[in-house]
Automatic annotation (TrEMBL):
<feature type="region of interest" description="Disordered">
    <location>
        <begin position="1"/>
        <end position="34"/>
    </location>
</feature>
<feature type="domain" description="JmjC">
    <location>
        <begin position="169"/>
        <end position="349"/>
    </location>
</feature>
<feature type="compositionally biased region" description="Basic and acidic residues">
    <location>
        <begin position="1"/>
        <end position="14"/>
    </location>
</feature>
<protein>
    <recommendedName>
        <fullName>JmjC domain-containing protein</fullName>
    </recommendedName>
</protein>
<dbReference type="Pfam" id="PF02373">
    <property type="entry name" value="JmjC"/>
</dbReference>
<dbReference type="InterPro" id="IPR003347">
    <property type="entry name" value="JmjC_dom"/>
</dbReference>
Amino acid sequence: MRRTMEERRKEIRQGFRSSVPTPADKPSTASRLTQTTCSSCDSTTKMECKVVQPWARTQDQVLTCKGWTLDNLLKMHKNFLAGDRVPVSKTTEEVIATFDAKGIPAVIEGLQHLPGWKDDLLNVDCLADDSSIEKVPVRNIHNNVDTKLSLLDFIERTRNASPFVQPGESERLYGKDLETPQSWIDWLHRGNVVPSCLLPTTDNLLVHLPESAKVDTLMSYIGTGDTFTPSHKDLCASHGQNLMCYTENDGSSFWFMTRRQDARAVADYFHNKLEHDIDHESYVTSVEDFARAPFPVYVIEQKLGDLVIVPRTSCHQVVNHGGLTVKVSWSRMSLKSISQAVYYELPLCRRVCRPETYRVRLTLYYTIRALYTKFSEQHTVLSCSTDLRNQAQQITQALRIFDDVLQNECVEDYVSLPCHLSSESNHLSCDFCGADIFQSFLECEECSSDGDPCTICPECYAEGRSCSCQLMQPTQVRPLNVILQERDEVIRGLQEHWKTSSEEGVE
């Protein structure tokens, strides 16, 4: 059995201790911890718990939303803007498309008043009854320590907690990335509450992955006042949706969000002014930090029945307020997400050694296969239809991205390289940076432990990372000639289509 990614990454890092400092080697003061550079960003990473080492915080530095109101926050700072709110009765695909085109956050409100909303299902007690998970992961926001508790125990502790941080308090638990009960998932898809264009299966290329490689993006979050998710971006330029399903004692959540177009400015501000990297997901941003930002910050108070739409690459921080809240969140990977991930987000993930999770290149590969299968079936019947032309254009765009992926995966003697896998269920990732391995990698059986070889992605190897003996063997996941044959078949089919169309063809 292969070891976990964290175990393998921890072991391979041992060979770099002379050049890459570990957290224990670094100064312990907050000011020095924040002065790490890109070349040493992995030195702040504690791979055992997948979080960046936090600096010690005193009690008065803990974020609290006591006294917050939306009106007061908006009046206090000139760069704070109210997020657009649209009643669900007036929400159309065109309205949602406009928000997406502008790259601004928005809220669809009033979902709890629709006939399909089920109070008897969407409550925390039903959540506990329906859950098949005995233990759930929870985080103590005071020290960033992750533990596991029974769901009933966690809910009881959350209900008994005060709505705001108290002096001398040492424990305040937040349940994030919890598994969502199947009954809730079924309701989400069939309840006729969430707009169909925002459902987890709509315009989500992750659905094309084979069952053995499926990626679950649908998660639940349970928290009380003064619990939070630090500033971050959703993975791989995905589209985010977050629905407030249940509240107690007027619980709500405050969101601080940025526009898609400000992603670079946000990264620069966090790196240069706040001395943190937004891609580490470790920095809890104060209201004052947001207020000093050189870009607009949208502030939203999410209440029961509010569906928050998170733009691709939007930086956002969520702070729970008041009583207990339960939210359900999911991400969708569109072709725009895939493109932005390949060219921009995946290199950033590699730089900070953040696991890829969504298997972007594999998703692109299976998307092209699925789209072309559908295209071929319809081509003989609908050779000149607008829908078919749109499909051809989408496949063409996907192919151009895929060709750029293949340029990084191909070597001249690929025919002679050994193949490693016959199934996508055997998920390989780089032992150093955590990147998902789609096709090419380097492997060393000699430096293996219990039959688990050292695995390095080509990018890390090119940067000088290797195993202890430095005799790594180039390897491929599947025969590359099969992928190239599939690609050529798609191109021939598209070229045949373009002969009867006035649209631009495939080069």
